[in-house]
Amino acid sequence: MKKKIALVTGGYTGESVISLKSAAIVEKIIDRERYEVTKILIYPGHWHHLTEEGEEIPVDLNDFSLMIKGEKLKFDGVFNILHGSPGEDGKLAGYFDMIGLPYTTCDALTSAITMNKGYTKAIIDDIPELNIARSIQLFSKSDHEVKAIQETLNLPLFIKPNNGGSSIGMSKVKSWEELDDALDKAFAEDSQVLVEEFVSGREFSIGIYKTAGKVKVLPATEIVSSKEFFDYEAKYSAGVTEEITPGRMNEEERLRVERIAARVYEKLNCKGAVRMDYFLEHTSSKCFFIEINTVPGQTETSLISQQVRAIGMEVKDFYTELIEEMLSEGRSTK
After folding, report:
1. In which pathway is this protein known to take part (predicted)?
2. Strands across the sheet with 157-161, in order?
3. Distant-in-sequence, close-in-space partners of 314: CB < 8 Å, separation ≥ 6
4. Rounded CA gap, 91 and 268, in Å?
5. How confident is the model at residue 141 (pLDDT cuts 50, 70, 90)?
6. Cα separation, 55 vs 158, whole angstroms
7. Structural domains of the chain ordered from first start
8. Predicted local confidence at residue 80, as pLDDT
9. Distance between CA 152 and CA 169 in Å, rounded?
10. Could you read off the pLDDT of 107-118 as tens digits, one per residue?
11. I need a surface site. Which of 4, 41, 85, 236 has the fewest CB within 10 A?
12. Is the peptide bond before 156 cis (omega within 30 degrees of 0)?
């Protein structure tokens, strides 16, 4: 009998647009011979399934079920592709934990921590061979905070919202005159802001996931952008960025990054597929952590999809591995 899988998408933030694009690809590619897939749209106060006839069927939040044509549809598990809140920050995971429904992404605690860039860096700071750029985490903007930045950190700087993704609200600051506007831009997106020193290096992104109980590291993608950094436009506009998979690393760099990536995944107690972004510094080849994305995009051109294909694997089979790992872990916790 086919397992009933809820494909969760939508969201409460601007990233919902990307979430819908990812869900459309997952819905098209997922193995229909194995799974009966039902797409669930989650918006503030409006969780529902939209039928082919255009009927909106509300989700029963007592058990995350649907009533379709007089029959109750309950799910065996959730394929979570909801970027941002509440799918990536732990809120949805906490709800699924309470009703005992397994899901393909990280648990509530890991999801909440990894949405906070500053907290994530503090946890992984002691991983061998991994480097962290010097930074200051701000909870407010004041003359005192600005002075602390100028006295502690060296230009150029990256200013970014501490929570959230898709590089929204990010700026590169080359002079102190630019700092004020950059902080305003970041604080407009979040109540916490991370200010960190710029690392001159080649940028990469690498996928990591667990299958059959073992951590597997995919080939890294090298990000070569025509812009100064990998911002929202560079991520989602055609022709702005060149993505090379596998990325150009020598054997020592590749093996070192794979060791680091697996340790980061384990240290943060990740589940499902995540994507770690990092720099290899130009002068030293040291690996500098940027951030981790616990609900990476799943569009046809997304980095994870490129990396899966680079090992000769069908994306459909990759989704099957994620779902089977989820169902296996779900059974083991009951």
Report:
1. Cell wall biogenesis; peptidoglycan biosynthesis
2. 135-138, 193-197, 157-161, 171-173
3. 308
4. 17
5. confident
6. 46
7. 3-104 (3.40.50.20), 113-131+199-332 (3.30.470.20), 135-197 (3.30.1490.20)
8. 98
9. 23
10. 999 999 999 888
11. 4
12. yes
pLDDT digit string (tens) for 230-277? 444 545 455 668 999 999 999 999 999 999 999 999 999 999 999 999
- What does the radius of gyration of the chain's CA atoms come to, in whole angstroms? 20
Show the 3-state SS of the chain: CCEEEEEEEECCCCCHHHHHHHHHHHHHHCCCCCEEEEEEEEECCEEEEECCCCCEEECECCCCEEEECCEEECCCEEEECCCCCCCCCCHHHHHHHHHCCCECCCCHHHHHHHCCHHHHHHHHCCCCCEECCCEEEECCCCHHHHHHHHHHCCCCEEEEECCCCCCCCCEEECCHHHHHHHHHHHHCCCCCEEEEECCCEEEEEEEEEEECCEEEECCCEEEEECCCCCCHHHHHCCCCEEEECCCCCCHHHHHHHHHHHHHHHHHCCCCCCEEEEEEEECCCCCEEEEEEECCCCCCCCCHHHHHHHHCCCCHHHHHHHHHHHHHHHHHHCC
> In which residue are the tokens 């409460």 written?
12
Place of tokens 């994305």: 293
d(CA 291, CA 195): 13
Average pLDDT taken over every residue of the chain = 91
**DSSP bridge pairs for 42:** 10, 47
CA 332 vs. chain centroid, Å, equals: 25
Strand partners, 309: none
- What is the Cα–Cα distance from 282 to 89, expressed in whole angstroms? 33
Q: Peptide bond preceding 86: is omega within 30 degrees of 0, i.e. cis?
A: yes
Give the Cα separation of 25 and 104 in Å (integer): 16
Rounding to the nearest 10 degrees, give the CA dihedral for residues 226, 229, 232, 236. 40
Antiparallel, parallel or unpaired: β 35-43 and 3-10 = parallel
278's tokens: 């990092």
Q: Is the pLDDT of residue 306 over 50?
A: yes
Report cis status (omega within 30 of 0) of the bond before 246.
Answer: yes
